Amino acid sequence: MKGGRGSLLSVLPYALIAGALLVIPALGVLQLSFQDPATAGFTLANYARILDSYYLSIILRTVKLALLATMVELAIAFPLAYVLARAAPGPKRILTLCVMIPLMTSVVVKSLGWYILMTDDGLLSLVAQSLGVHDASLSGSTFAVVVALVEFGLPFMVLSLATAIEKIPRNLEEAALNLHASPVFVFWHVVLPLSRSGILSGFLLCFGVSASAYVIPAMLGGTKVKMAAQVVYEDVLVAFNWPGAAAVSMVLLIALSLILYISLLAGRTKNEARS
Amino acid sequence: MKLGRSFLYLSAGLTALYMLLPVIVVVATSFGGTAAYEFPPKSLSLTWFAALFNTEIFTTSLLHVSLPLAVGVAVASTVVGLFAALGMARLRGRVADIVALLFSAPLIFPQVLLGVALFLFYARLNVALNIVSLALAHILIATPYVIRSVTAGLSGIDDRLAQAAQNLGASPIQAFCFVTLPLLKSGILSGAVFAFIVSFSDINLAIFLSAAGNTTLPMQIMAQMQYVSDPTIAAAASAQIVVVSLLVILAQRLSGKVRA
């Protein structure tokens, strides 16, 4: 093979960076999670602590809110993803910008936008009050956190779905329509099944970013709507309980990897059943 | 049929609006005329932008921390990512799979947890947090964007062009510098732009890794937000949006050229 050693040499710098700054620190977290904060001996106490109802309720809330946000994203991202995938080059450029700008803007900046809308006299708080759905400020409510989480994940979901929809040959839809299938039927029986890869990758991406969100619950959730990443933050920078933070990080990582694994497995068996 | 189409476009438009809403709110608020957050603003003024440029914490964060940091990260990630992409294109088999997995891991790994892992890693090695430790972490998460856009650029290049140059007497290095590199230019540049934005917008790593004296702009916005409601913060956030938007438009123009 020509240039085999040259190729290895050329990937080496980033391999070293990823090894030193990702693999080794991640292994360090694993090791630290079994370390006694006082004696530095082996212990399972850091994991046992998470079984306390305070931590359990935060982890359950994190999974629940992340799932809810991801499901909402999946539902409302589809029409935009479809229009984006099928748009003519001109409108496509503009639509892509509408997705890329929110995607690349700092999450702090976007949280500030939601904060302005949801403080005591913010527009959304006033609307909610006049409709009688909510009596006071929306800030600090689960609603505020979910609205911001959904918005945060939407660009990821739209891009994942659009990439999959672009690959569906247009004639498949046209053929079905010519055979007098209704557009709704075409959506359920042609577009939706064929965009499964996009649904899967969008689901995984969005669930991952929502379940590990820190800034959004910290800025909009007040004291009541705490999520798992905040526990990690407080353990590390407030309580200086590093082994505790390591254990919570590991639980989150394992939960995310399990979901990744199960979804990939589910995706594969369905594919095999089909072919 | 027609009703279905308009329903499709309407719901697509609503989703796009939802996605853009916080950005619109921040920009509109920064042009407001009152001393409190006001959306929609009842009067317009440039007061908060004037205040922004007279507020040292924000100008320092923007001009002396975030911008130079993002430039440094973009340059370093582009060099590292270019070599990584060129190498990856030639790797085959098991090694190629392992490298591909390792190089996509920084994109998949939850950023907040990466921040914690790096904080603990630096702390246990007794490495003091400074701009370099943050820059290294940013290079870690920005390089995959360079790899992706260079790889996309490479797939559009005919290998035979460099081969032809070599047949005509060019050395492999000459063929690379004068044939492959110019053809890759837009892929490299758009990768660099994305690497810049990744660093410039990052908060999840900065929460754990920014030290006193080098507070990035997103960190400064978050810190100030917790103390006061001041439209100057919205103006700082608008500056973030303007830089990111201009660069996203630039990246789109660059990658548009690649496709054509």
Folded structure, characterized:
- Chain A is an all-alpha fold and 275 residues long.
- Helix content of chain A is 79%, strand content 0%.
- Chain A contains 13 helices and no strands.
- In chain A, helix 12 runs antiparallel to helix 13 (242-274).
- Chain B is mostly helical.
- Classes of the chains: A mainly alpha (275), B mainly alpha (260).
- The interface between A and B is large, with 87 and 89 residues.
Q: CATH superfamily name of the domain at 56-216 and 253-259 in chain B?
A: MetI-like
Indicate the percent of residues in helices of chain B: over 70%
Shape of chain A: globular
Biggest pleated-sheet summary of chain B: none
Rg from Cα of chain B = 22 Å
Number of domains of chain A: 1
Q: State the order of secondary-structure elements of chain B, H for helix, E for strand.
A: HHHHHHHHHHH
CATH superfamily of chain A: MetI-like
| Outline of chain B | globular
Give the CA-CA distance, first to last residue of chain A: 35 Å
Distance between the termini of chain B: 34 Å
Helix proportion of residues of chain A, in percent?
over 70%
* Number of distinct helices of chain A: 13
H/E series of chain A, N to C? HHHHHHHHHHHHH
Instruction: List unreliable stretches of 5+ residues of chain A.
Output: none
Query: Tell me about the biggest sheet of chain A?
Result: none
List the quaternary state of the chains. Answer: heterodimer
Highest CATH level, the class of the domain at 56-216 and 253-259 in chain B = Mainly Alpha
**Mean of the pLDDT scores of chain B?**
90
Topology:
The complex is a heterodimer of chains A (275) and B (260).
Chain A: H1 4-32, H2 45-50, H3 53-86, H4 89-104, H5 107-118, H6 123-131, H7 142-166, H8 170-178, H9 183-194, H10 196-211, H11 215-220, H12 228-238, H13 242-274
Chain B: H1 2-30, H2 47-54, H3 56-90, H4 93-108, H5 111-124, H6 131-155, H7 159-167, H8 172-201, H9 206-209, H10 217-227, H11 231-259
